[in-house]
Specification:
Radius of gyration: 17 Å
Structural class: alpha+beta
Order of helices and strands: HHHEEHEEEEHEE
Largest sheet: 4 strands, mixed
Distance between the termini: 41 Å
Oligomer: single chain
Mean pLDDT: 84
Strand content: 15-25%
Helix content: 10-25%
Length: 250
């Protein structure tokens, strides 16, 4: 049997469909999709990066689609300040880690553009549906990807600090799937002092005039704010997200 390795196009639906026939553990150990060893810095950040309170949900926005990319490094050559992310998924009712959840992230580049939707994000999302999966209009897939949680409920990504676009604060979209269900759609956000420092640097500085900060963003909630520390020439961010896989409202 030929397995799909990191960076190959493999849809989340295929990944989930393969679970019932192969067992997710066997499939992922071959694919390299599950998070690996978590270093001490990330472990300590995650220990204080959230509670078991159900994470606030948010709209998926107009630019979500199943990108078909199972990988941890989602940069694809995009320029920007390096950002390593550690995300722990836990059950909001039990506080236990959720293993084998598929975690997707997507966000704009330093100029405020989304891959698969560059034309639409240049012209603005006004009038586009916020809760409907879009059909990609270009073949780019930068700053989009998925990983599968390990036994501690953790996934890790390497990306860049997101840019901004009119009407929104700086953010990263996250969607969590357990089995074939979407159990959480939320967004990750950053302290404004860090946003200011990063956006003053190139290539972000080529996109001036930011019009929306956290406190003026309609989706912002305190539970979306990540713990972020300096990490060499970039940053390390961590957050614990509490989902409700049993859909019992807890």
């Amino acid at each position: 049997m030929r397995h799909d390795h990191e960076g190959r196009r493999v849809s989340r639906r295929r990944l989930i469909a393969g679970v019932s026939s192969l067992g997710l553990g066997g499939l992922l150990s071959a694919s390299g999709a599950r998070a690996g060893t978590v270093n001490t810095d990330l472990s300590s950040l995650l220990a204080d990066a959230g509670t078991c309170t159900l994470t606030p949900s948010a709209t998926q926005g107009p630019f979500y689609f199943d990108a078909g990319k199972i990988r941890s490094d989602i940069r694809e050559g995009k320029q920007g300040v390096r950002l390593r992310l550690g995300i722990r998924i836990q059950d909001s009712a039990t506080c236990r880690p959720v293993r084998d959840a598929v975690v997707e992230i997507w966000h704009c580049d330093a100029a405020g553009l989304y891959s698969g939707a560059e034309h639409e994000s240049k012209s603005g999302s006004l009038g586009m549906p916020l809760m409907t999966d879009m059909t990609p209009t270009d073949d780019k897939r930068y700053l989009r990807g998925a990983q599968v949680t390990n036994s501690d409920g953790i996934v890790q990504f390497t990306t860049i600090w997101p840019g901004w676009y009119p009407g929104r604060t700086v953010h990263i979209h996250v969607m969590v799937h357990v089995s074939d269900r979407r159990v959480l759609c939320t967004q990750l956000m950053f302290d404004e002092s860090l946003n200011a420092a990063v956006l003053a640097r190139p290539p972000y500085s080529a996109n001036p005039g930011r019009d929306t900060v956290n406190e003026k963003d309609e989706d912002y909630r305190d539970g979306m704010l990540m713990t972020v520390v300096e990490d060499g020439d970039g940053y390390l961010g961590a957050i614990a997200l509490s989902a409700d896989p049993g859909r019992d409202g807890r």
